[in-house]
Specification:
Layout: E1 27-34, E2 40-46, E3 52-59, E4 65-70, E5 77-83, E6 86-92, E7 98-104, E8 113-116, H1 119-133, H2 139-147, H3 152-163, H4 171-184, H5 189-211, E9 224-226, E10 232-234, E11 242-248, H6 253-269, E12 274-280, H7 292-312, E13 320-321, H8 330-334, E14 342-346, E15 352-355, H9 361-368
Parallel strand pairs: 1-7, 11-12, 12-13
Antiparallel strand pairs: 1-4, 2-3, 2-5, 5-6, 7-8, 9-10, 11-14, 14-15
Amino acid sequence: MKKIKSLLFLLLPILSILSACQGQVGHALKGSIQNAANLQVILEQSHFDRSNVAVGRASCDGSGKFEIKLEKPLEEGLYRLSVGAKRMYFILDGKETVVDIQGDLNTMDRLDIKVTGSPTFECYAGIIRDLIQNQVKSPEEAKAKIEKGCTPLMQAFLTTQLLGTNPMAFMADFKAKSTLLDEKMPGSKYSTDFKGMIAQIEAQVGQQQGAELIKVGQVAPEIALPGPDGKVRTLSALKGKVVLLDFWASWCGPCRRENPHVVEVYNKFKDKGFEVFSVSLDGADPRMNMSATEMEKKKADGKAKWISAIKQDGLVWENHVSDLKYWGSEPAGVYGVSAIPKTFLIGKDGTIIAINPRQNLEAELLKAL
């Protein structure tokens, strides 16, 4: 499954290990980490361009205690703390003096730690802990979590974590967070990098869209193929409705993981003029070097798996078709499909109105219905 080259941080729920010693003069990050005896501790400042600048280092003693003394306060920013092979990201607001952490190396990935000295870090840790315990199920839920961020930098970072798998679908959200970040940290590397990241994403998507055979505004080419029952179904028969043309296959893991969302949207909008037209790439590629008998056997096996996947995934709409030619699928060639899942949203007049709408499918539907 092709994706825009990742410019974004992956979700890293293991978070900051900051620590502070009460009553001590100066600035420090320190703590006591069980099962971290004699491990090296490295503190770095991280940025959206994935660069990391070393800030300080120390070693845990035999009981797991460490202290990184600092000559000056840590500025507002994103930081990474490595304890042995464990890495944790966290955010500071630049007002901290001493930050202290107490925990266990083996349970840091579940945030089973106690942190004092940084309300901003505690805010971020609370959001991540909530995300670990309550999986985000929709873009709306993701956006609600992002809004809980206590600083513009935190909200920008959470946006990359929660909406970064399909940034173009949420470009308005990225740009809104960029504006807030620029107002709070004007001229900073964080603001500059975040804006640069957005520009690069838009440029990459522009290049991809320029290479598409089918573009928004074009009339959707006709598809007429048999369904599992042998009955020929045509895309043009659905003119007058908003249609999601979905290229998928039983063997495609990302397609199967996407199916529950498609089912949910279909059930929500089917009575309002919405249909799904699914084209399966199951079967056998006729360009493969195999005997006619082998080809027919492979097609039959592909058809059985296709029908089984429809039932297993609850794809209850009627319009399922396939020529059982695998990557030799004729409609896939016409539509320039080189990776699946690949979807096209078609308006009531039969023209393409969106390509690959996934997280923003409902929003596009509401505009079209």
